[in-house]
Predict the 3D structure of the following.
Amino acid sequence: MASGSGVSAETNGTPLLRLRGISKAFGPVQALTDVDVDIRAGEVTALVGDNGAGKSVLVKTIAGIHSADRGEIQWEGRPVRIRSPRGAAALGIETVYQDLALCNNLDIVENMFLGRERTRGFVLDEEQMEEAAQETLSSLAVTTVRSIRQPVASLSGGQRQSVAIAKSVLWNAKLVIMDEPTAALGVAQTRMVLDLVRRLADMGHAALIISHNMNDVFEVADRMAVLYLGRMVAVRPAAEMDRQIAVDLMTTGASSRQSPAARKGEGG
């Protein structure tokens, strides 16, 4: 069962999630080959790669939608099998997909508790749900919604993304996976979502984002994991990468360019 805070501290440097040798094929198509990556609490990890690199398959394997053919998944230092999205949620893994899975005809509170409504006797405990929703939004500094009883249909793209992320936090997610969280958002809405992703990590959660937007990636990521044709070709601190190195890795699987720090050292 998840702790009250929803976040567990890492001990002895053990990653929250560790993948080793993860491989997955669909018939003759090898989608993932021997993928290794560590996801740490308190960090934003960006998963990047060209179309067809295997990003979605890897995320769906972590989320319990696909089962790996080979390899090991460790959660908080213990080997686990994630057989379903429900099993992933029980560990503390929540995924916010691009479609956000929000119901336009319901308000914010109803969306955040959809399928997990709280009751008192045989009636919905509206007051407790409102309080929990408001507390969660406040803790993440989501201040732009007019009312937690606003219909989701009336929200902007950034607000909708914020509600979807807050919903995962409400359910004690230790790892929040976000698929293209800033896609189709304007500048102000993108800023709102990136700030929220950063706050998520600062609160001790692990955030894993898939994004094609390199500006967003370098602004918010602590670490970058690069997939190329189903193989993990680099997992590095974002400070050791730049756009050119990232593009090299995404398009060829390798880069001979020096890291920004190394170039700065030579220049000094």
Residues 187-202 form the longest helix (16 residues). The longest strand covers residues 29-39. The radius of gyration is 19 Å. The chain has nine helices and twelve strands.
